[in-house]
């Protein structure tokens, strides 16, 4: 009775077999498209930022293309030193708004200045430099410093190699 209904619905066994092949093909394409979701690092590149703005280990991210609202999560907080003088800390989740060359309303990323931690609230790309704003002041760094992602805990000095020098733009501005 079941094969009679299938045969009546589809027509012939050959068409039914073709139907099964096509449906499996669409199902596998859908699965492969889901597994091909771009990474948070790819999203940074799409918005003209280097991948090194995010440390290694992003577990998941979310991006609303219409508003630019994004979030990224790590397996716990992440901190590291760069060149020994800059200490950075990422919360277990960061968020903000991303657009071409600008990350605004950033939450969850902070830098230690002297003896206190201050939040980095905006990152802007200006040619070959990145400008990091903490609200009342900003500092610029060459984009070359961010070609690779640092690692939580050890930054760029994970193999106990010589620490790479961060090239800073000669300006620091106050608002």
UniProtKB/TrEMBL annotation:
Q: Which domain of life is it from?
A: Eukaryota
Keyword Signal in annotation: yes
Keywords, in A-Z order:
Signal
Pfam families for this protein? DUF538
- State which residue ranges cross the membrane: none
Q: Write down the InterPro entries for this protein, in alphabetical order.
A: At5g01610-like, DUF538
Q: Signal peptide location in the record?
A: 1-27
Annotated protein name in UniProt = Uncharacterized protein LOC111293680
Gene name per UniProt? LOC111293680
